[in-house]
Each structure stands twice: as structure tokens, then as C-alpha cells.
Amino acid sequence: MSKILLRGYEVNFIERNPRGSRLIVLLHGFGASTFSWLPIMDALAELGHVVAYDRPGFGQTERPMVWQGTNPYSMAGQVQLLDAIITHFGDGREVILVGHSAGGQLAAHYLFKGSKPISKLILESPEILTPGPPRFVGLFLRLPIFNRVGPKLVGGFASVGQKILFDSFYDKTKLTEQVIRGYERPMDNSDWKEGFWEFLKADKHSDVARRLGEIDIPTFVITGQFDTIVKVEDSMKVAERIPGHKIYLVPAAGHLAHEEQPDDFMRVVGNWLKR
């Protein structure tokens, strides 16, 4: 893992094959980090320069508590960071976005709000149609009284996060102690509660759900056959609204298909990208 200063704070990232002919950027989901992508990083690097980074509030990326301008934890701030990632690593090459769950929403949102051209889009169990909290909830959480107690309130997320992780795997034997520890490790940081609180209350509104029909680049939607976090039918609805889409259900996998079935995941992704 490495750190790079972008948008005024240090961003944690991992990369493979930096001389690849195209840039493939990986966007993790809620509660995850670059750790989630390790099972497919090396195989994906055969197809280009792969960069995965920890989104603000997660992993080992710095958690700024003060900033000027756009809130880095907001959807707009995350778009700006992705812009900076592509600017720094892209070097004029073709750019492909791969987004899992909430990272899929960011990837699709970027097509409409980002400044860099994207050539292909891969959405794995995209959290686009799954309803999140109403916007007024974020406004409510930003009241001064909650700012004082908020970080303490999120302390219980560790147990909730374990439940989400457990439900994300179809084959529970693959949820090893090593995997659990990989997801929990960012919580060792002394400021993780404060950063997570900033993420929770930030404005992450997106209108991408109603604009799916405007996506005009090759798009591949993938979901685990037994995903219960983002329902399979929701992923299928996302795909159906995107012109010229392709969709694939990874057998014997849940919400984290690229972790449970990395070989099958890479087989279909590799074939699609080569075409």
C-alpha cells in the first residue's frame, strides 16, 4: 500500500502493472477498502494498470476533520477525488471504472459529474436502486448536538459491520478470520469513528438512478446469484435501464462475488474487456 496527497489529504492506494496500456480504477463499497479487491488485483493487472484506493471515511485514507471548499466525504467530494485519481494515474490512457455496491453508484454518478472521459463501466451489485436514507437525515445529523455525540454513537458499528459482512457471503466457509480481520483493520485507527461519522452525515445525493438510460458507454453489470444486500432483481433492473448492457450472475456467490468466486468473476470480466 502507498499514500499520495490529493485534494489536500493523503489517499491510500494499491496498484498493479503501472505500465499497462489502460487505467482500471476500482471503487469499493460501504464499509470496505482496498483489501476487498486483493483476490482479483493480479489477474486484472494482466489487462491494464490497476489502481484501487480507499474512499474517504474508509480504509487507511486520511480522515480530514476540517477542509476548505467541498466536503471530501460528500458525493461531490468523492467525484473530485476520483477526478484527481484519474488525472494523476491516467496519463492520457483509456480509463475503465469498476465499482462495487456503493462504489458502483459513485462510478455511474461520475459519468455525469466527472470531468474525465470513461470508456467502459463495470458495475458489481450496484447500490443504485436500493433506497438510502432521505436527504433530511444528513441535515438532521449535522445539527451541533449530534456533532458532539456522533462519533460515540458510531462506535457500535463494529458489530453491525460484522453482520453485514456475514450476510454478504453466500459460502460462509470463505469468510475466514483473515478476511474478517482485513475488514476490521481500519477500525484500529484512532480517528476512524470521527471519519465514519463525517461520512454518514455528508450529502451523498445522486440522481443517477433516473439517468441510467443516458449511459452511452459499454457497461457490464455483475451480481452474485445469491446477493441479499443489493437484491439480484435490483441489479437486473439497473442493467435493463442501460442501453446495450451486458449482465452476468456469478454462481454460488453473494454480495462480494469478486471475493467468493474470483476466477469466474475474472473469466467473464476478462472476456468482456478483451472484446
Structural topology:
Elements: E1 2-6, E2 9-16, E3 22-27, H1 38-44, E4 49-53, H2 75-90, E5 94-100, H3 102-113, E6 120-124, H4 135-141, H5 144-153, H6 157-168, H7 177-184, H8 192-201, E7 219-224, H9 232-240, E8 246-250, H10 257-260, H11 262-274
Helix pairs in contact: 1-11, 2-3, 5-8
| Share of helical residues | 25-40%
Instruction: Please tell me the CATH architecture by its name.
Output: 3-Layer(aba) Sandwich
Number of domains: 1
Number of helices: 11
- In this structure, how is the largest beta sheet organized? 8 strands, mixed
Order of helices and strands: EEEHEHEHEHHHHHEHEHH
Concise structural overview:
With 275 residues, the chain is α/β, with parallel strands linked by helices. The protein has helices at residues 38-44, 75-90, 102-113, 135-141, 144-153, 157-168, 177-184, 192-201, 232-240, 257-260, 262-274, and strands spanning 2-6, 9-16, 22-27, 49-53, 94-100, 120-124, 219-224, 246-250. Helix 1 runs parallel beside helix 11, helix 2 (75-90) packs across helix 3 (102-113) and helix 5 (144-153) crosses helix 8 (192-201).
